[in-house]
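User: Structure please.
Assistant: Input sequence and predicted structure:
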Amino acid sequence: MQLPRTIAIACLFAVAACSSSDESPLSEEERIKLHREYASKFFATGDYAQAEHQANLGLALDDDEPELLLIKGWVHVKRGKSEDVRIAERIFRDLADAKDYRTQIGLGEALERKGVLYWESAAAVESGERSTQAKDRVKRAEELRTEAKRFWRESVASYNQALKTKPDTVPAINGLQRVCALQGEHAKALEYSFQLLDLERKELDFWRTDLARPNISAAQETEMRRLLAEGERLMIETHLQASSLLVTLGRKEEALEQLDSAAALAPQRAEIYSRRSQLRRDLGQLEGALADIEEFLRRSTLDAKHPDVKRALEMRAEFELALGGAAAG
């Protein structure tokens, strides 16, 4: 996917020419290929506006091009607003006959997000924060929650279909981890968390080994480091998710181990220390709890008036008082 700088510049001019002139020296197939490559590049770097722009330019030449449709669908999933989710769902449903595991993952995530939007709407309707034409707010909220659960069940089916097509696919397992947690199936979600952590460890080991190869190009090194960074971010978030699930399941000692692993990967993340401090307090490890809350305060970039900072200061005072009393006793 990486191109030498001179070629990349030439391609950019070519893409510009493709979009503005019918006299391009490139064939239609070549123009579509360029739009596809640049849409993929922009999407990988998080520039979703440019990714969609390139996808649309390519689709103007071939409105059924599956790779461009996939990218466009994923752009709308990443944006995550109600209209975006509707568009993404339609795109992935239209592509479903292709039997592409990526399509199933895309549909799974669109439905997952749709369920979240309905669940949030239910809370807003029930509280009166959001208007409704229904006479009974509570009944309407329950109807929205029922719909949300239906979307999540279909999301699970899509993720599972992706795993049938391509076993051990990380995005599908990650999706199942999230949706099971949303459905309150905490033990099942935890199984997916552990499965995901195992797969990511192997994948990170692979990229680290590949990165150590002699004579790799600068472009290859850049891409490998990007993949490593993405994998480590996923590992961190999965450790945090597993910790929350273990707390819910009453397994706080194991939850603490997950936070230890997250802190080892991301020692700069202040919130990890706050969460670990609370767990250590619950487990009676007051010295460790005090050390962690102090680390949170040292690393936090939040304003001094932020509720989390105020709570941390209260916790520090609580721990110091308890430890002082224990020493005096």
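Residues 1-21 have pLDDT under 50 and may be disordered.
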